[in-house]
Amino acid sequence: MEPNSLQWVGSPCGLHGPYIFYKAFQFHLEGKPRILSLGDFFFVRCTPKDPICIAELQLLWEERTSRQLLSSSKLYFLPEDTPQGRNSDHGEDEVIAVSEKVIVKLEDLVKWVHSDFSKWRCGLHTGSVKTAALGRNGQKEALLKYRQSTLNSGLNFKDVLKEKADLGEDEEETNVIVLSYPQYCRYRSMLKRIQDKPSSILTDQFALALGGIAVVSKNPQILYCRDTFDHPTLIENESICDEFEERLTSHCSSK
């Protein structure tokens, strides 16, 4: 694979007219190969002047007629980086989602990806269940499977996980996760209830509280979202491809 090339990872997960849908893609970040898959959260900067925000990858597809590789993501900003700013109602671990999803060519999305998130101080930092505890009776595999079924409509990610493992990546490397507000509340409540308990006891409780979302990550930054806003300048970003969203919507609705 060439350093600047993009390629799909894993088998296609859907076919609809001229569109082929995929679960993951591989690219290079600072000279190193990296894989992003559906449901992943990662830091991005939409333009050099914009603040760092969080993207959640929600859809990947190729338009066969134009050979365009496309993505749809949901963006989350800190309250202070929105037009209304932060107020007393906002929680310290809260982010606000852009009301519209952003359609971006993969070649542009990878330019947005931000590897230096050292200045991102927000989010609940907490220890995770030790992976040794998850190794018993296939619990880790069960949690990954459960996570796939809840976050990604039951898609089989076995081939993607293998590719990530071959690159030295792992689900445990996730460094940021955005939960719904109810999930976040359950998470905080569970943390309080299980303080000072052995990790072997925590595994199933974390799984029940979070559906396996955070249990397999190493010290992730946990945030939550309960509101949306209209981004005033995002539509002016030359990387946004609204025309592809219109084509996809029009084609799917006509079938």
UniProtKB/TrEMBL annotation:
Q: State a single Gene Ontology molecular function.
A: transcription cis-regulatory region binding
Highest taxon above the source species: Eukaryota
Which biological processes are named by the entry's GO terms? Answer: regulation of transcription by RNA polymerase II
How is this protein annotated for GO cellular component? nucleus
* Xref: InterPro entries: ARID/SWI1_ChromRemod, BAH_sf
Q: Which PANTHER family match?
A: AT-RICH INTERACTIVE DOMAIN-CONTAINING PROTEIN 5B, RBP-RELATED
Write down what this protein is called: AT-rich interaction domain 5B
